[in-house]
Design a protein that fits this description.
One of its GO terms (biological process) is phospholipid homeostasis. It is found in: Membrane. InterPro entries: TLC-dom, TLCD. The protein is built from 9 helices and no strands. α5 runs antiparallel to α9. By secondary structure, it is mostly helical. The N and C termini lie far apart (42 Å). The protein is globular, with a radius of gyration of 18 Å.
Amino acid sequence: MGPGGRAASAALVGGSVAIFGALRRLALALPRPAAVRSRPGRVWRWRNLLVSFAHSVLAGLWALFSLWHSPELLSDIQDGYSVSGHLLVCFSSGYFIHDTLDIIFNYQSRSSWEYLVHHAMAISAFVSLIITGRFLVAAVLLLLVEVSNIFLTVRMLLKMSNVPFPALYEANKYINLVMYFAFRLAPQAYLTWYFLRYVEVQGQGAFLTANLLLLDAMILMYFSRLLRSDFFPSLRKGSAGRDVDGEKFLID
């Protein structure tokens, strides 16, 4: 990518950061459930989750559309390119930068350090492929995870707001599990297999493979938390009485 292309991409990322900043201010003006208003520690978390939900809906549907509109991309994961995919990666890079700054500037780094690690991995990986123009399709496949995140975020919002409709939480619980398999575990497993088998273990390939393997470990850890919390609560350890109001974690 030439200097002009890099400058345009940087402008797109910056514009995305500004968009999510505006969404954050909008979330501040929205009414909050009584259960959130009564616990000051939950206010930041609620607002942050609303912005995360907006990104998940937009990026998840965008990733689906990009692959549906250009299915031939799946045959060239290393060098395939589409304008839609490129814009999506710039858009999501802006979100991860915005969310990182939101966590740091609101003094949530200690409770949300796992998210900071994840965001650092995502930003560095996305910037590398924006600059080189390679592995764009892999990024779009990874962003299918945002479809799963829609239901994961709804789960947390329902828990925080204490909505008196347990059937709604139960329904979302099972939909969330299916989506976790379909849009998080399956794409991640396929990309891990692809990178280990076909991608050279040097330079950018080695860097992305290492990121992918670390992300595998994080996803499996989150999955085990989800299973313990929603399906095997008797296996949970050390959670009784724990105050998680300020934490960003979606699984607790």
